[in-house]
């Protein structure tokens, strides 16, 4: 799934203020079972039409959530004949697949759209040119839930992206002036977005689709995962996505405002290991970034400005890179002229510090006091300088 907000990287102008109510888990469990009463076995059928490809193959990459390997699952295929294909099988529970197409033999399939396979019939249509465009899937219970979410969520996403674009236009035309009204509008949209996610999870607490959605989007939003986790039924809590949400909840708890920042030891550019506790100053910003992350690189001028202004007043920065290419990391440090401590284990998405701090999207940062307590986080743009002005006396 692509990032819902183009100002955040992964390891989505009217203000919507609708108030949502949540059904209880018992209510949803009853509704979920009733909706599939007519399906008497575990068989499923996928039927599809492909525009622009009379022959070739459609592929379905299944997530291996049983073995906690969501990107290493089984691949099934269906042959395209005169622009149509059909695929049948059996499943006891819905599961997510990524759909791909290979129109030429001996070429790897291109995988992109996400859908859910479930009991019953699902109908798929898409165009091969442009590749996998105009994708649509509908019919099965799980896929219809996924469609319901995407349709409603698009309203919030459009509002958020419109506000972000307005902020960018404001900066270009008037410099880095105050945009308080836009910030308040963005906060209102995010609050409404969170309310909708809570409404959806509360409405479908026994659905693997609901758990997938919450787990996926908690990578972008900085909401408390435990609030969502508590909504799910026991079977969903025990599922792959439920367990991932539980892990995110643990990371969130470790990095709450007022908590002592988890300690770690990571090497610098010369390979020398450094312990977080040994690097603390009166105020320390832990900045998570990567050379390939454009929003992270766009934040570096703000970090540099704050560092130069407050470095002689007890402020320092520790940058922790999520890179997995050492040369790219070192080049970005040089190109962006970053003089503070730079750390990385060059493990990218597999870095233990990612789970320790719950860093599922970057840039992320945490401001610590001299005791190592987190006093603020996610200080983007001018907000870092404003916070330092508040806490550091002239």
Succession of helices and strands: EHEEEEEEEEHHHHHHEEHEHEHEHEEEH
Helical content class: 25-40%
Count of distinct structural domains: 3
Percent of residues in beta strands?
15-25%
Structural class: alpha+beta
- Which overall shape is indicated by the principal axes computed on the Cα atoms? elongated
Structural summary, described in words:
The chain has 394 residues and is of the alpha+beta class. It folds into three domains: 9-27 and 143-254, no CATH class; 42-139, Immunoglobulin-like; 265-391, Glutaredoxin, CATH 3.40.30.10. The chain contains twelve helices and 17 strands. The protein has helices at residues 25-35, 141-174, 180-203, 208-217, 225-229, 234-237, 240-254, 276-279, 294-310, 326-335, 352-357, 383-391; strands at 9-10, 43-51, 55-62, 75-81, 84-90, 95-102, 110-117, 120-127, 133-138, 265-267, 273-275, 283-289, 315-321, 341-343, 361-362, 364-369, 374-377. Strand 12 (283-289), helix 9 (294-310) and strand 13 (315-321) form a beta-alpha-beta unit. Helix 4 runs parallel beside helix 7 (240-254).
């Amino acid at each position: 799934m692509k990032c819902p907000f183009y100002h955040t990287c992964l390891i989505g102008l009217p203000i919507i203020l609708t108030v949502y109510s949540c059904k209880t888990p018992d209510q949803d469990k009853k509704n979920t079972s009733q909706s599939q009463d007519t399906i008497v076995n575990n068989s499923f059928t996928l039927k599809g039409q492909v525009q622009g490809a009379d022959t070739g193959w459609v592929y379905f990459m299944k997530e291996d959530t049983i073995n906690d390997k969501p990107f290493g699952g089984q691949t099934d295929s269906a042959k395209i004949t005169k622009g149509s294909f059909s695929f049948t099988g059996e499943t006891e529970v819905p599961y997510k697949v990524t759909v791909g197409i290979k129109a030429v033999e001996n070429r790897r399939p291109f995988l992109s759209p996400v859908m859910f396979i479930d009991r019953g019939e699902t109908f798929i249509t898409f165009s091969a040119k442009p590749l996998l465009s105009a994708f649509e899937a509908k019919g099965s219970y799980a896929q219809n839930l996924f469609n319901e979410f995407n349709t409603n969520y698009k309203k919030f996403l459009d509002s958020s992206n419109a506000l972000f674009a307005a902020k960018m236009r404001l900066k270009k035309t008037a410099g880095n002036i105050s945009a308080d009204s836009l910030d308040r509008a963005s906060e209102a949209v995010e609050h409404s977005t969170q309310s909708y996610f809570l409404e959806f999870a509360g409405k479908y607490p026994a659905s693997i689709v609901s758990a997938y959605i919450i787990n996926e989007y908690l990578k972008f939003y900085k909401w408390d995962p435990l609030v969502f986790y508590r909504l799910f039924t026991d079977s969903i809590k025990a599922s792959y996505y439920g367990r991932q949400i539980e892990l995110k909840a643990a990371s969130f708890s470790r990095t709450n405002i007022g908590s002592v920042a988890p300690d770690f030891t990571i090497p610098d550019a010369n390979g020398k290991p450094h312990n977080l506790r040994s690097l603390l100053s009166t105020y320390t910003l832990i900045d998570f970034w990567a050379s390939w992350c454009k929003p992270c690189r766009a934040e570096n001028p703000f970090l540099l400005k704050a560092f130069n202004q407050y470095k002689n007043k007890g402020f320092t920065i520790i940058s922790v890179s999520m890179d997995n290419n050492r040369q790219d990391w070192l080049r970005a440090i040089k190109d962006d002229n970053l003089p503070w401590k730079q750390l990385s284990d060059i493990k990218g998405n597999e870095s233990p510090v990612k789970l320790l701090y719950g860093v599922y999207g970057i840039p992320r940062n945490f401001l610590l006091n001299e005791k190592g307590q987190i006093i603020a986080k996610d200080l983007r743009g001018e907000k870092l300088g404003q916070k330092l002005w508040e806490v550091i006396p002239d």
